[in-house]
Amino acid sequence: MLVAAAVVKYAEGYWMVRRAPGRNHAGMWEFPGGKLEEGEDFSQALSRELWEELGIRVRVGECLAKARNQHIEMHAFAVEIQAGPPQLREHDAQAVIPRDQLSNYPMNDLDQQVVSQLPI
User: Fold this and answer.
1) What domains are defined for the chain?
2) What local confidence, expressed as pLDDT, does residue 4 receive?
3) Which of 68, 73, 61, 70 is nearest to 4 (CA)?
4) pTM over the 0.70 mark
5) How far apart are alpha carbons 74 and 114 in whole angstroms?
6) Is 108 exposed, middle or buried (0-12, 13-18, 19+ CB in 10 A)?
7) Can you give 64-105 as a three-state secondary structure string?
8) Could you report the per-residue pLDDT of 58-80, keeping only the tens digit for each?
9) Which of 3, 47, 107, 112 could bond to 74 as cystine, CB 3.0-4.6 Å?
C-alpha cells in the first residue's frame, strides 16, 4: 500500500498530530496523510487526505523521506499549509515539536523512520 505523509516545518520544529482514542494507532503521534486511491499521485492523495481529516488546503513540495514496512510504503513530503486552521477530526491533539524532542513522542515505525531522515 502506498501512503503519503505531510511534513510541515516551522522555525520551532515539526507539526504533528496525535491519533484520537478509538482510532487505529490511538495515542500515537504522526505526520498526517493517508493512502493513495486509484488514479491519484502522492500530491493529490495528500491534498485530499489533509482536507478530509484536517480541513486544510496545502501546497505539496518535494519528497523528504521514504519509509517502508511489510505492508506499507510511505513517502513524506514537505507541505505548506495554505488555508486552515487545522480541525482535529480524527486526531485529539496537535503540536509543533522541536526536532531534538521528536523521539520523546510515541509514534509508529514508519513515522520514526521519517524522523530519522529529517535534518537536525
Assistant:
1) 2-117 (3.90.79.10)
2) 97
3) 73
4) yes
5) 9
6) middle
7) EEEEECCCCEEEEEEEEEEECCCCCCCEEEEEEECHHHHHHC
8) 999 999 999 999 999 999 999 99
9) 3
